[in-house]
Amino acid sequence: MEYLPILNLLLEALAYLGRRAAGNTIEHLMDRLRSNGVAQTDPLFRRLGPLEEVYQAITQAVPLAEDILSALFGNLPGFPYNTVGSYSPGFLLLFPQVAKYSGSLAHALAGAQAMGPEELAGQLALALDIADEGATTMPADTFSARVLDLSVPAESKVAILDLFRRPQAVLAQAGPVLRQTIAALEAQRKTLEEICVPFTQALLNTGPADFIDQTSGLSAKPDLGYRLRPFLFGLDTNLATPQIPGEPVQVYCGILRGPIQQALSATRGPEYQVYHAIKLLGDKTRFDILCYLRNRRAYGQELSAKFGLSRNTIHHHMSKLLAARLVSCTVDGNRVYYTVDRESVSDLLNRQRALLLPQAEKGEAG
Least buried of 114, 209, 348, 366, by fewest C-beta within 10 Å? Predict the structure, then answer.
């Protein structure tokens, strides 16, 4: 596992535009943290102040009509909440090009344009977690049927199918917007690199493998290489790109994910962590999923078929279990597999026992 301290400006542009479409400003993030009980947000805000200035500078440099911004980079209704617009038409279509991006937007747009129907269907299916195991392509009829089977509003299904049938329409609109945004980011590159310095120092001090283990539910697969990179506008998001054969899995790490997790943990304390885990497993479906994963690993579609739930519902449950570190995930090719995080669950049970049976602990020690 290695760390490459170089920003991917295509990903940063997509994330910035997704944040802007959803109104997820830096101040919005601070408000969310305060509403979750984090009283001391000043240290975080000091680190984010320069990024807020960059955000405002790019917003001034890239004027956009709200309807166009929302149509291209706003999350489609019915999909799990995220802060970077990863369920927007622009993100869905161009995210497969992120891992290949080397500074040329023209090549990225051409790569998206050059995908044939089955390859495009396969890439969209992977992003929507409706792909078959190990498959990177999908027949058009199969893709259409699975999209229509999604538990999302009809308008979102229509938008996805239209994106599949007419990707050039989105590319024609998104291309100029991304070109302006990347140019604005490039003009701020020195500032962006300076903002990433504390993150880089923290990651190198911890070590890439330990860092990713502490800040996400990702378990590195020994026979695959992993390359970590900073994700500036992702902030609190870790994101793995589709794997290119023969290349390391690229994991983009939100530069404030660790500090935000620490701030929330310090505010909530061990009692909240135990309560939150019990509350999560009070949902029978999540409890059943955790039991199913005790001695096996499974991917989203397998869990969907096993429990008779839509892939969006499974994604919702797995996101919560991952956040609570009850499960971990492994990137294998272009698929994410889940399994029980045995070490974390064991630690949780020990904390639960110490919290609920403190006298018993003392008695046993004597």
Answer: 366
Phi and psi at residue 215, to the nearest 5°: -110, 5
Q: Is 19 helix (H, G, I), strand (E, B) or coil?
A: helix
Residue 95 DSSP one-character state: G
Hey, how many other C-beta atoms are within 10 angstroms of the C-beta on 218? 20
pLDDT digits (tens, 9 = 90+) for 308-329: 887 778 888 888 888 788 998 8
What are the DSSP calls for 222-281, one per residue? TTS-EEEEEETTTSS-EEEPPPPTTSPEEEEEETTHHHHHHHHHHHHHHHHHHHHHHHHH
- What would the pLDDT profile of 329-363 be if each residue is shown by its tens digit? 877 666 788 989 888 888 888 888 888 887 655 55
What does the CA dihedral 73, 75, 76, 77 come to, rounded to 10 degrees?
Answer: -150
Average pLDDT over residues 294-309: 86
In sign, the C-alpha dihedral spanning 244, 247, 249, 251 is negative
Contact 64, 3 (CB under 8 A): no
